[in-house]
Amino acid sequence: MAALPATNAFTISASQAAGSTGDKGLMRTESLRNPNITVQFAKEVIDFSSQYGTETSISYTARNLAGGANIFPSYGDFTQACVFRTYGPWWKKAPSARKPFERTPKTFLSDDYIEITFATKVYPIKLDIYETYNPGAIVRILACDMNVGTDVDTGLSVCQWVTLWQGRPEESTRQSRIFSPPLKQCPFPTELLRLELCHDLAPYYTDLDCVQLHGTTEPVTNFSCVRLHSEQFYVKDGDGVNVMSTMTGALKDLSLEPNPKEFNTENQYVSKEIKQITREKDTGHEEIKNIKQTNNLDSVTYMQSDNGFFDLLPGEVIQIILSNMDLPGLCSMAQTCRLLRRHCCDSLQYIELNLQPHWTQVTDAVMYSLLKRCSHLQRLNLSWCKNPQLTINGVDAFMQFCGRELTCLYISTCKFVNNDCLMSVAQYCPNLRELDIDSCLQVDSTGFSQLKNLLQLQRLNLYRTYIDTMSLTAIIRSCPNLQHLNLGSCTCLHFMDDIADELGKNCRVMNGVYLVPDRFHDSKRKLKSLELWRSRSISHEGLLRIYTNCRDLEEIDLGWCTELKSRTSCFVELTQNCTKLKKLFLTANRTVCDEDLLAIAKHCKDMEQLDILGTREVSAFAAQRILENCKKLIMFDVSFCSGIDFPMMETWKKDFPHCEIKKSYQN
C-alpha cells in the first residue's frame, strides 16, 4: 500500500476548486461555495468485516482503502485495492450457506462493512468513493460521533451513529467511477465513517481504491443548497464516471425499548390518525349495539375496550398477523394498546431474533428489555453489535435467562466477545448447534477452550480468529457431529495437518458406518463443508486424512493453500474419494494441472462451483471437459489461467449459458 500523500487533508477555496485538477488528472467539480472546505482522504482503516488478503500482507487488504488514489482511473483487478472476501450470490448458494433469519427488514442488505477515520473532524457534505472494479455494491454510509459523553446511569461512553445515505446495490458497469451519493445533513462533526456493501449483484470481487471526504469545520446553515451544488457528475477521459444513485433511505431509527413519549414525539402525525380511528371505532360500537337491539340479543354483552376490533379476533390470528412485522415494528405496535402489547411480548414471537440490522441501537438496556420475551429463543444474531453500551454484563444476563433453548448464535465482529463471553455461552447454552465468532479478535486460548463443552455443535465459524491448534483439537474431539467448519485466515493454526488428522478421526463416515462415540450416533453427523482458505501449513498428508475419512464432503475451500502440490496426486484422490463435492476452490494453486481437472470432470458430477484462479498449467481442453461433464456447474472461475483466453471464454458462455464463467483482468 502506498504511503499517505502529503496533501491528504487540505483546505481549498471556491476559486481554487473551480476547474482544479488533482492527482492523476482527476477533474474536480466546482467545490462548494464556502471558503473553508476541508477535503481529505481516509487516514486509517480501523475495523472491517472481511478481506480477501491476509493480516500480514498488503495485497487485496482492507487497509488499502486508506490514503489517496493508487489505481483510479484504471479499471481492473489490482492488488493495491481494498477487496472483500465474497462476491455475488455464490456463498449464499453453497452447501455451507446459513438459513436466513426471519423478520430481517427488507431494507437491510449489507454483507460487509469497513470503517475509516480521517485526520480532521468535519460536517460531511460530500463523499467520493473511488470504485475501480465491479462498482455498485455500496448500500449504506454512516457517520459516528464518539464524543456524545457518558451515560449517567451506567458510566459507559455513548456514541451516536447517523445514516447519511442508504440505497440498493446496482448492476455493475465495466468502468471505474467515483460514487458520490447525496448525503443527509449530519448533526455533528465526525472523523469516523462506515461503508456497508451488498455483493448480491457483483459479477466478481468489488475493488475500492480510496475515499475522499468533503466537509466544513462549522455547521452548514443552508445544507440543501450546498448538497445540490455538490451532486454534480464529472468524467475523467471518458473512463471514470461519477454515477449518482437516486435510491435514498427514508427510514427513521426506532428504539427497541418501549418509550411512548419518544414515539409520539417522533411521530406527531399519529395523534390525528388515532383520533380518526377512535371516531370510526365509536361508530362501529353504535352499529353493533343497534344490531343487538334489533335481534333481541340482550343476553350478549359487548365489552367496549380501547383495542379497536382486535379483541374480536382469535389470539392465533393476531399472532400470525404480528409474525409478519420486523422487530422495530413489533416494539412500536406494543405501544398501541394493552391487548397488542400482550401479544407483541409473547415469547412465541421471539423464537428467532435478528439484531444485526439494528446494531447501532443494541445496548445492555435493550438486552434487558428483551430478556423476559425470549424465554423460548432458539436463534439469535448479534453480529456487528458494537455499541459501547453493550457489554459482557448485559450479554451474560441475557444468556443466563434465554440460553437454555438456544441452538444458533451468531456474534461475529463483536467487541464484547471475549473469554468471559465464550465462558458464558458454554455455561448457559448447552444445546447450541451453530456458533459464529467470525473476526472476534479479543479471544485467546482460555476462551476457545470453553467451546469444547458445546457437545452438540454442528456449525462453527472461526474465520479470522486467533484460535490455536491445541484449543481446536479439543473442540473437534468433543464435538464429532460438526458438519460445517470455517478455519479461513486463522493465522495461529501452524500445524494444520494435526487438525486434519483430528477431523479424520472424529468426524468421519466410511461405508455408511459413522465412527463416532455411541452417544453421538446420528445419520446427520458428518462433515459437509470445510473452509481452509489461506491455511498455508496443510500438506497433502493432511488433506489425505480428510478425504479418506470425510467422504461425504460437499464443499471444501483450499484457496491459497500453497503447500498442496498436484504432483502428490492429492487433488485427484480428493475427487475420487469425495464424489459428492458441490463446491471446490483451488484458488491460486500454481500446480493444478489438466490431470486434476479431468478427475473433477470424471468423478464430481454434482459440482456447482469451481475456482481454479491462477492455475497456469491447465488447458482450455481440460476446462471444457468440466463444462461438458459437470451439468450442474453454475460458477466457474478461470481468472489468470494463461491457457484460457477471452475468445474461448466467450465461446463457452454461448455454449454453456447455465454456467457463469469468471475471468478477472487488469485494464
From TrEMBL:
The GO cellular component terms are: SCF ubiquitin ligase complex
Gene3D superfamilies in UniProt = Ribonuclease Inhibitor
Q: Which residues form the F-box domain?
A: 311-347
Q: Which UniProt keywords apply?
A: Ubl conjugation pathway
GO terms in the biological process aspect are: SCF-dependent proteasomal ubiquitin-dependent protein catabolic process
Coiled-coil stretches are none
Task: Give the signal sequence positions.
Answer: none
Q: Which InterPro entries match?
A: F-box-like_dom_sf, F-box_dom, Leu-rich_rpt_Cys-con_subtyp, LRR_dom_sf
Q: Which CDD domains match?
A: F-box_FBXL4 (cd22117)
* Name by which UniProt lists this protein: F-box domain-containing protein
Organism of this sequence: Potamilus streckersoni
